[in-house]
Design the sequence.
C-alpha cells in the first residue's frame, strides 16, 4: 500500500479565503518519501524544542502558533494543523484545524491528543510573516505558480 503525505493549507491564520478564489480546505499531496518533504520535516523537528518554548511564552508581534501532526488510521495517513495546543503531563492536546480527507478517526474542531513524535511541522506569524511551515514551503513545488503567489502575497510566506 502506497501512503501519501496529505497536508492541508487551511490554517494560515491571516485573512479569510474568498470561496470563489480558493478552496478553504485546500490539500496538496506528496509521497512521504518526497525528498523536499522529508527535508522539511527534519528541519521542523530540529527546531521543535525552541518553537515549543516560544509558543509557551509568545513574544510581542507573534501569533497563530500551530503544529502539524501526523495521524494514521485504517484509511491511511494524513497530517493536520493543530491550533490552541498545550502540553499535557504526557504529550499535547489541541484543536484540529482542517477537514480530514483520508483519516476518518479525526474530525475538524475536535480536541486531539498527540505526542511530540507525531509533530511533523510547526509555524507562527511574526510581524505578519510566516515563520516555520516548512512542509508548506516544500509543497510549493507541487502547486501552480499562481497558487504559490497567492499564499506568498496573502499569507506572508517568504519561501
Sequence:
Amino acid at each position: 500500500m502506497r501512503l501519501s503525505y496529505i497536508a492541508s493549507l487551511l490554517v494560515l491564520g491571516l485573512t479569510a479565503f474568498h470561496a470563489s478564489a480558493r478552496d478553504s480546505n485546500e490539500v496538496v499531496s506528496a509521497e512521504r518519501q518526497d525528498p523536499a518533504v522529508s527535508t522539511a520535516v527534519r528541519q521542523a523537528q530540529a527546531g521543535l524544542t525552541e518553537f515549543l518554548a516560544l509558543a509557551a511564552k509568545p513574544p510581542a508581534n507573534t501569533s497563530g502558533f500551530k503544529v502539524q501532526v501526523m495521524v494514521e488510521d485504517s484509511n491511511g495517513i494524513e497530517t493536520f494543523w493543530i491550533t490552541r495546543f498545550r502540553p499535557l503531563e504526557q504529550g499535547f492536546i489541541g484543536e484540529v484545524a482542517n477537514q480530514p480527507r483520508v483519516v476518518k478517526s479525526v474530525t475538524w474542531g475536535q480536541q486531539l491528543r498527540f505526542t511530540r513524535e507525531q509533530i511533523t511541522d510547526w509555524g507562527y506569524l511574526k510581524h505578519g510573516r510566516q515563520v516555520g511551515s516548512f512542509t508548506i514551503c516544500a509543497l510549493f513545488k507541487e502547486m501552480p505558480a499562481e497558487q504559490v503567489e497567492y499564499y506568498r502575497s496573502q499569507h506572508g510566506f517568504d519561501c
Summary: Confidence is low (pLDDT under 50) at residues 1-6, 9-30.
